[in-house]
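To whoever is on call:

I kicked off a structure prediction for a single chain this morning and the downstream step that reads the tokens threw a length-mismatch warning. I double-checked the sequence; it's 199 residues and nothing unusual in it as far as I can see. Pasting both halves so you can look.
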Amino acid sequence: MRSSVLSLTSARRSLSAVPPLDRAVVPALPTRLRPADLLRLTDEGAEDVLAGRYDHLLPAAGIWPTEQRWATRLLTDDEVDIWLISWTPDKSTELHDHAGSLGALTVLSGALSEFRWTGTELRGRALTAGDQASFPIGWVHDVMRAPAVTESAGPLDPTLSVHAYSPPLTAMSYYEVTGHGTLRRTRTVLTDQPEGDMQ
């Protein structure tokens, strides 16, 4: 993660300096923010969490949930939602998309495994502390705490990441890979919660 003295509030102000888009393009886009903007916001959110600016939103007595993923909203407005998520072992989000929202994440601690649908297969990658990823509309993926971290967690507990969605989430669809090597939608849910159902 790059060093930054900006808070999420000042980052939001700097985004307002982005020049307006060509009017012919605006109706086709769900948000004026770009993946690079979301990556910057998750990076700055991660820096703010590590600096203690959101300690008042963390679990009581610093005890992180061990059975279910946990999340708290760091920032929300009409354009973007930014979340801190704590990941627990063996809890997958299931294959899902973010409907009409772009997304990005920055890993603060531990590691995540992401499996995304390429159109013909699931392709996996590991994201460790400091890594970032963005996902456009239509990105179908499954995210979970990386198994290797589970075995040697120690000081890496908890596994944390900051996520941004623009526009803010309103729905998610879930999928399964069929026996014919295609993707089939199994359900769509209305939600404003990040990365699947949160407890």
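Update from on-call: the warning came from a stale cache, not from the record. Cleared it. Sanity check on the structure: The CA atoms of residues 11 and 67 lie 34 Å apart.
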